[in-house]
Amino acid sequence: MTLAWPFIGRADQVREIVATLKRSASPGLIVAGTSGVGKTRLVDEAVCALPPHFVTVRMHPTRILHRMSFEVLDAIYPAGSSRRGPHNTPKWEAERIRRYAESLTGDGRLVLVVDDLQFLDPQSAAALHLVAGKPRIHILATVNVDEPADDEVKDLWRDRVLVRHDLAPLGDPNVRDLLQRVLGGPVHARTVSELRSITGGNLVLLEALITAGKVAGTLGQHDGVWVWSGQPLLGNSAIDTLSGRFERAGAEAEAVTVLEYLALSEPIGVTVLVALTSAAAVEEAEAARLIRVERNDHRLEARLQHPLYATFLRKAMPVTRMGRMSRELADAVQTLGARRRGDLLRVALWQMDSDLPGHAATLAGAARQAFALYDFQAANRLARAALAAGADASTAVDMSLILASSGQWHSAIEVARSAFRQARSPLERAAAVYAEAFELGVGLGKLAAAEARLDEEEAALSAEPVPRGADGEEVQAALDEMVCGRTALWGFAGRVHDARDLALRHLEQRDRQLLPGPRAHLQTVAAWMLVHAGSLTQGVQLAQQTLSEWQGWRDARPSLAPFLVMTIAVAGVVAGRPADADSELAAWSALAPSGDWPVAEGVLGLVECWSLRLQGRYADALVVARDMVARSQDVRGSALGELAHCHSQLGNHAAAAAALDESEGLAEQSWGIHDYAHRFAAIRLVIQGGRTDDAAQAAEAFARSVAERGAYVVAAHAWHELTRLNVVLPPDAIEVIGRVEGPFAQIALEHAAALAAADADSLRAVSDRWAAANLWPFAADATGQAAAILEATGRPQDAAVAHARASLLAEHIDGSPSPAVLRARTLNLTPRERHVATLAAGGLSNLQIAGQLELSKRTVESHMGRIFTKIGINDRHRLREILGPAPNRPLPE
Question: What is the pTM of this model?
Answer without folding.
Answer: 0.71
